[in-house]
UniProtKB/TrEMBL annotation:
Keyword Disulfide bond: no
Alphabetized PANTHER family for the sequence: BLL0828 PROTEIN
Pfam families the record matches: DUF559
Cited CDD domains: Endonuclease_DUF559
Lipid metabolism keyword on record: no
Organism: Belliella buryatensis
Molecular function terms from GO: endonuclease activity
Protein name: Very-short-patch-repair endonuclease
Keywords: Endonuclease, Hydrolase, Nuclease
Ranges for domain DUF559: 15-120
High-level lineage: Bacteria, Pseudomonadati, Bacteroidota, Cytophagia, Cytophagales
Transmembrane segments: none
Length: 130
């Protein structure tokens, strides 16, 4: 895998990503079924993608779009601070992040998919090279 694609993720991050792919949450499974194999407008997504020192839930390299799903733990103050710091580091790598709650994925799946497509449209407008 080219290092630019993974931003020099370590072998340990790759190992942990593989473990996470084998134990995805229900919300991750639901969204993956809608994203995998180009099912969303032919876009290619990866799940549990190693990126630098992190593992992002879903990643579309063509648009450098990271999709993160948040469970209840992400409502805690300490976790919110870690998420903010992590997001800033990912943005510094040139990545774009969109977040959804697990609940919205489970109960409003189509709306989540429309928001992903809207974000991609926005990214297309920002950068005509995409």
């Amino acid at each position: 895998m080219p290092s630019k694609f993974n931003h020099n993720a370590s072998p340990e991050i790759f190992r942990r990503a593989k473990e996470l792919r084998e134990s995805m949450t229900i919300a991750e499974q639901v969204l993956w079924e809608r994203l995998r194999a180009g099912r969303l407008n032919g876009l290619n997504f990866r799940r549990q993608h190693p990126t630098s020192k992190y593992i992002v839930d879903f990643y579309c390299h063509q648009y450098k779009l990271v999709i993160e799903l948040d469970g209840e733990v992400h409502l805690e103050k300490d976790q919110k601070e870690r998420d903010f710091s992590r997001e800033e580091e990912l943005k510094n790598l040139g990545l774009h992040i969109i977040r959804f709650t697990n609940e919205s994925v489970l109960h409003e799946t189509n709306e989540v998919l429309f928001k992903i497509l809207d974000k991609i449209s926005e990214l297309k407008k920002l950068n005509t090279n995409l």
